[in-house]
Amino acid sequence: MFCNQCEQVFRGTACTDVGVCGKDPDVQSLQEILLYGLKGMAAYAHHARRLGQVDEAVDAFVEEALFATMTNVNFDIPSLLDMVLECGRKNLRVMEMLDAGHVQRFGRPSPTTVYEGTRAGPGILVTGHDLVDLDDLLKQTAGTGINVYTHGEMLPAHMYPELRKYPHLAGHFGGAWQKQRSEFAEFTGPIVATTNCILIPREAYRDRVFTTRATAVPGGVRIKDNDFGPVIAAARRSAPLPEGKVRESRVGFHHSVILGLADKIIAAVKEGRLSRFYVIGGCDGAEPGRNYYSELARLTGDDTLILTLGCGKFRIREHDYGTLRLNGVEVLRLLDMGQCNDAYGAIQVAVALSKAFDCGVNDLPLAIVLSWFEQKAVAVLLTLLALGVKNIRIGPAAPAFVSPNVMKILQQEYNLQLIGSSPAVDLRGALAAR
Fold first, then answer.
1. pTM to 2 decimal places
2. Residues 43, 44, 47, 49: what is their CA dihedral angle, to the nearest 10 degrees?
């Protein structure tokens, strides 16, 4: 790397010649946190803009924040930390716009059962996050005899009535992003990658990969407009898929659905039949340590509710958590709230519950355990911190771009903690915290 401050090449994450350029590791860390948060927020804002949702204040902040990371602009730790938290506040607004755009375009979400596997005949697999792309593809494939399947974070698309009204939205295929190289090789039809979380494709399926707009991979075909004709042509010449059901899943617990049960949830808490809420989700990954999340979820009690979102859901959903009876209504203990894009919903549920119980969010019987991997997870974490949410656990490892001193600040101010080696020990600590 090259340091713009002292004009010398260096190795690592920060220039070691602080006396020359004055840019210490903590300043470097905060600037990197801000940049990663901005990248995550930009991904959400891109989706929102495609749905007609924009905010000039958000755009102005992006410009100001990027300027603050330039050479010789801001080496002041308190002001940089303020800007990092402002990024979290602006990201809340962006996620609010995205949520509103989805509901306005695709209808109010509702719980639905999703077929997972394949149907006999030609098919197209859609991965990523962009529901507008999925909608356009469904319209263009209507009446062609080609089935369309969601993959990864596209699973929550089935909760929207204006998407699931298409009979050829045949189901869901596959799990989280890190398994795609084996899953895409198994799927015989074309794959459409609408956003990030697409890996460099293997030779076995490279000629069947299509990407949209900013997303691109070597060997794939990039679609710059909304014409999915090349994808449809590829589906027609591909080998048909076999009939093969793997499972069924229940999705669609949008924040409006959960808040529709608020009176029953509140009564169950007051009567002692519902003891705790857990938010367990985020980004999944392949590195060791992520089985922590599945073990933690299985250890939660039968009188608790688990809210999950993001591709981290695939880490914990294999277990049958049963149901919880809330004043005559049977509710699944594991409630899938949607994509990482739907983190706004979990925040809305927490805020609504705090108002109902006349307490702060930090006083709720709520534990938040997040798995992180990329920039959107950083943006969501910054939003939670900007809202003053404390006692969050993240993992499986500390972000490399957070310096020890910056981590110390976050621990002192928000009690931000890394997950431990034992889910049982962490669970006891979370129970004792409130």
1. 0.92
2. -100
